[in-house]
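JOB MANIFEST
job_type = single_chain_structure
chain_count = 1
residues = 219
[input]
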Amino acid sequence: MDLRDIRTFDKLSEGEVKYVKRNSRLIKINKNEILYSPNEICEQVSVVLKGKLKVSKLFPSGKEQILKYLQKGDTFGETLVFLKAQYPAYVIADTTAKILEIPKRVMLEIFDNKAFLISYLESISKKVLNLSNVIEMLSMKTIKQRVARYLINLYNSQGSNVINLMKSKKQIAADIGSVREVVSRTFSELERNGVIKLLDRQHVEIIDFEKLEEIILKS
């Protein structure tokens, strides 16, 4: 995968891409290998070139709470690296994966490219906005409310009552602090109640916006 295929890096010149690759580290890891651990200082921006990672909290009992998934083209560590902050959770390979680690000093040098700097800041801003939406969802008491808010957020961003879920039920569950089985049951319940129609695994039609909003506002 070429760096310029990733939107954040598509403003770089061919020479800048070569410079980044020459001064970065390519890591190959197997499924279930730990890439980064909590309390480890983030010293680079990481780019997923191949495969899928998961960001997880691990408990002494052996249980795992998946916070989010990172897929091909995703970046992480963008803010941590400039704060000299620690990773807040484990980053684990969910499949065989390739990751490019771009050191802080290299990032600072390519910031001379103003178009890239603006693209980078836009990417961070979108993640902050998404985090705000996640916090709002997690503040809701029931999983049904969180699913309803998730659907409304997708409607607002896509502008159509037929929405693309963009993710699997397992990934949605991780985003809203639940598990796949509960999320699947919630979607089925919403369909039985005439709120939505499940078109296929990735597409849902919102039938009754008023009922969906009532679910969100219910205390």
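[summary]
Helices lie at 14-22, 80-83, 104-110, 114-138, 143-158, 169-176, 180-192, 209-217.
The domain at 3-134 is CATH 2.60.120.10 (Jelly Rolls).
exit_status = 0
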